């Protein structure tokens, strides 16, 4: 397969990003005027503006009308949002996303079971209560909200910044998947059982079992979503 053609504005965007990585411009710094950048990168103003716009969409630059362009805090989640928005509908995408989620979240459960505190357990119990209430009121949207928060809270218990960052990258797409899954009452009840079982495993510091529960839970979710796409 031939390499995708790179446009000039893509190349300039990469060059600007490289300068940021090297420390030439830091978070909060204002970029030089357009005239200076046009001269430095030897491009037209139109090309430069497209480059800046691309970096703005990625959350790397803040463009303030009438003021200038500033270096924003580089958030890895922003880089992944465009990718995940394209991966939300196909069977292949579901397989890829869930492969990654299973490795991430089952591993996080193992670590969470080892590191959990009484305060962590209290937070998880509160979310389980909220999910129970959502079922009582037949509110699938609320159930999905706390379902998502429950998964995020478990990763948070690990206190591992890399795992937490990676979980954040998945948030936009996993929210879509969770909402789709929780349209089915049977799925909600089974999910609730999984979450309770997972809580007890973490409470008892049964790390291997906690990882297995999460893996089985996500495998089942993937299977349901994949079958839903079949004609």
Provide the descriptors you would attach to this structure in a database record.
2 domains, Four Helix Bundle (Hemerythrin (Met), subunit A), 2 strands, mainly alpha, two-stranded antiparallel ribbon, 231 residues, Arc Repressor Mutant, subunit A, 10 helices
CATH superfamily heading of the largest domain:
GntR ligand-binding domain-like
- Count of individual domains: 2
Give the N-to-C terminal Cα separation. 30 Å
Shape: elongated
Helix proportion of residues, in percent? over 70%
How many strands?
A: 2
In short:
This protein has 231 residues and is mainly α. Helices cover 74% and strands 3% of the residues.
Can you walk me through this structure?
A two-stranded antiparallel ribbon has the order 1-2. It is elongated, with a radius of gyration of 22 Å. The model has no long low-confidence stretch (mean pLDDT 87). It is mainly α and 231 residues long. It folds into two domains: 67 residues, Arc Repressor Mutant, subunit A (Orthogonal Bundle); 152 residues, Up-down Bundle (Four Helix Bundle (Hemerythrin (Met), subunit A)), CATH 1.20.120. 26% of the residues are buried.
